[in-house]
Design goal:
single chain, 124 residues, mainly beta, 7-stranded mixed β-sheet, globular, 11 strands
Length: 124
């Protein structure tokens, strides 16, 4: 069971990136998927979540209106479209999977599986 996060890179403020989280060894549509990010010296922050049962999506206030999470079950991949990127979005981004739903979807202890992280750098 593995998650592979990709799509990070260097982008200017106001630009866009799309991150991908591809799964192997299991089917993503049976799992709840979240994206987290972390900067050095800070806790890992939950930024977006897509619920398995009904596709409901959730966002941290810091990214609401700019980021969109989606899933493509045929490709066994979850995406995070990031628009209007800001300097503060610079971080390592991780995807994570959980078999269970909780309203506190941003709780790291909920997740059984983690991807390896992909670096996003917003810089002019």
């Amino acid at each position: 069971v593995q998650l592979q996060a990709s799509g990070g890179g260097l982008v200017q403020p106001g630009g866009s990136l799309r991150l991908s989280c591809a799964a192997s060894g299991f089917t993503l549509d049976y799992l709840n998927i979240a994206w987290f990010r972390q900067v050095p010296g800070k806790e890992r922050e939950g930024i977006s979540y897509i619920r398995r049962s009904d596709g409901s999506t959730y966002y941290a206030d810091s990214v609401k209106g700019r980021f969109t999470i989606s899933r493509d079950n045929a490709k066994n991949t979850v995406y995070l479209q990031m628009n209007s990127l800001k300097f503060d979005d610079t971080a390592v981004y991780y995807c994570a999977a959980s078999r269970w739903y909780r309203s506190s979807w941003y709780d790291l202890s909920l997740y059984n599986y983690w991807g390896q992280g992909t670096q996003v750098t917003v810089s002019s």
